[in-house]
Structures are given as structure tokens and as C-alpha cells.
Amino acid sequence: MKNKLNLPSLILTFVLLMIWELAALGINAAYILPTPIQVIKRLWELRVPLFTVHLPATMGVTLIGLGISIVLGVLLAIVMDMFPKAEKALYPIIIASQTIPTTAIAPLFILWFGYSIWSKVLVTILMTFFPITITVFDGFKATKREMEEMIMTYGASKKDIFLTLKLPTALPNFFSAIKMSIPLSVIGAAIAEWLGAQSGLGYFSKRMMTQLDGAGVFAPIVLLSAVAMLAVAVINILENRIIKWRKEI
Q1: What are the C-alpha distances in Å from 18 to residues 22, 47, 150?
Q2: Nearest Cα to Cα of residue 58 among 179, 184, 186
Q3: DSSP codes joined into one string, 162-183
Q4: What CA–CA distance (Å, rounded) separates 198 from 120?
Q5: Secondary structure of the chain: what % helix, strand, coil (to 5)?
């Protein structure tokens, strides 16, 4: 059954790869647009520096930034849900933070923190805490008022309402936010590395561009995409198990 469900995705992926292949052959300039086969071949040739140096550097930035964003986003969502005045004060600021172009603020972080990991982590946080905060907050707000009033008649406190009603209701939103944030965290890390770093897949891609190595530019991008898709697949599995478990009890 699952294979049948995945068939349309496999067909679309194959069609897109064929279009890419034909376009690359038509341009006939690998330094501008290499073929998928050339990219895979170059990825294999560069496997040692990519997998031992640059991928760990990017994943370190991604994991730290995403971890901080999860904690920060969930805390902000809880505060805004519990305190209406905090929602009025924080919501506009959270929205305003997303109007700042990443490519404009990233050089400032590098200026302030240098080429350390924290300049890149801050870019990742800036790109990921917003969807986590807003999506989890919307999950809390999705709780039916009638259900809250009903359990309050049994003497439930705000803490009881949060733990037994709001938290389970917001759980699917939380997982959706994580799945949205994983690609954004990877993109944020790569952008920061592209603008200023000494290691990482974004830095490596930029270095290959200066050498007019088209396949070398695409190789770390393909690797980043594969890692992000794998991470989202793991979160999907975790989500199915946890939500199913909660439903069973």
C-alpha cells in the first residue's frame, strides 16, 4: 500500500530528473548546469572532505540552531497562550523579525561574532523559531473552549487544562512546525556559511563556484537536500508513533 502511495512521487522525481538531464545536455556547459549523473559522480569524488569535514560542520550549526529554536519557540507559544498581554506585546515583534532579509542580517552577525559557529547559529535561529512559535501557538488556540469549560467544572486548574487538553491538541502542530523548520534550518546554515565561514557545505559550494566547478557546486546542495529529507522522514516516523500512542491511551 505504501509503495503505491509513493509511486506518484517517484514518477514525478524521475520526470524532473529527466528534464534536468535534457536541459543540461542542451546547454552543454557543465560549469553552468551539470547533469544529475555528473553531480552524483562529483559527489562521490568529493566524499571525503564533504562527509568528514563540511557535512559535520553544517549539521553542528543546524542541530544547535534548531534545538534553540524549538525551546525558544515553544516557550514563546506557551507564554503567549497563558498571558494575553504577552501575546499582544510579542506577536508583532515576532512577525517583524521575519521581515529582516537574511542576507542583510547575516553579515552583521559575522561582524559581531566573527567566523565562529554562533554567527551561523543565529542565522539559523532567525529562520526557524518563527514557524515553531506561530504553529504551536495556533495549536494551543485550537483547543475548544467548551472542552476547557467542561473540565474546569470538575475543578481543573490552568496547569491541568494545559497538560491534559492543550498540549495533546497542539502536538500535531508541533511536529508540523519541526518538519517545516528542518529545511529552513539547513538553508539558514548554508546561507550563513556561504556569506562567511571556513567550513561547511555552504562554504564548500561557494569555493567550488569560484573554480567554475558546476558539479562541485551542486554536490553539497544535493547532500544537504538528502540529509533534510532523511531528517523529515525520521520526524514523520516519530510523529506517527507518538500520536498513535497518545490516541491509544
Answers
A1: 6, 25, 58
A2: 186
A3: IIIIIHHHHHHHHHHHHHHHHH
A4: 11
A5: 85, 0, 15
Cα dihedral: 119, 102, 47, 217 (round 10) = -140
Candidates 128, 136, 69, 126; CA nearest to 101 is 126
User: Which whole-number Å values give the CA distances from 103 to 96, 124, 188, 199, in the listed order?
Assistant: 16, 12, 10, 18
CA distances (Å), 88 to each of 73, 91, 122, in order?
Answer: 16, 6, 25
**pLDDT by 10s per residue, the chain, length 249:** 444 557 777 888 888 889 988 888 888 877 788 988 999 999 999 999 999 999 999 999 999 999 999 999 999 999 998 888 988 888 888 888 888 777 778 778 877 887 788 888 998 998 899 889 999 998 888 876 666 666 766 666 677 677 777 788 888 899 999 999 999 999 888 888 888 778 889 889 989 988 888 889 999 999 999 999 999 999 998 888 888 655 544
| pTM for this prediction | 0.83
Grid cell, residue 204, equals: 564548500
| Helices 55-82, 117-141: crossing angle, 10 deg rounding | 40
Whether residue 92 contacts residue 149, with contact meaning beta carbons closer than 8 Å, is answered with no
Query: What is the rounded distance in angstroms from the CA atom of residue 55 to the CA atom of residue 199?
Result: 9
C-alpha to C-alpha distance for 137 and 202, rounded to whole angstroms: 32
* Residue 130 CB burial class (10 angstroms; 0-12, 13-18, ≥19): buried
- Are 58 and 193 a contacting pair, CB within 8 Å? yes
